[in-house]
Specification:
The structure is a single chain. Helix content is 30%, strand content 26%. The chain is α+β, with helices and mostly antiparallel strands. The longest helix has 9 residues. It is flat and about 45 Å long.
Length: 46
C-alpha cells in the first residue's frame, strides 16, 4: 500500500483510490473524481 501511495503522489495525482486484491495478487489504482453523475439540467447547458 505504501509503494502504491508513493507512486500516486510522485505522479502528481491529487485524487486516487487504491484497491488491493491480495488473493489474486492485484493492485488497482483508480484515478479521478468520484463517480457522481451531473444533474440532468447540467447536460442541457451545452
Amino acid at each position: 500500500m505504501e509503494r502504491a501511495t508513493k507512486a500516486v503522489k510522485s505522479a502528481g495525482i491529487e485524487r486516487a483510490r487504491i484497491v488491493m486484491d491480495l488473493k489474486n495478487q492485484r493492485i488497482d489504482i483508480i484515478i479521478g473524481e468520484s463517480g457522481n453523475a451531473p444533474k440532468a439540467d447540467e447536460w442541457d447547458r451545452e
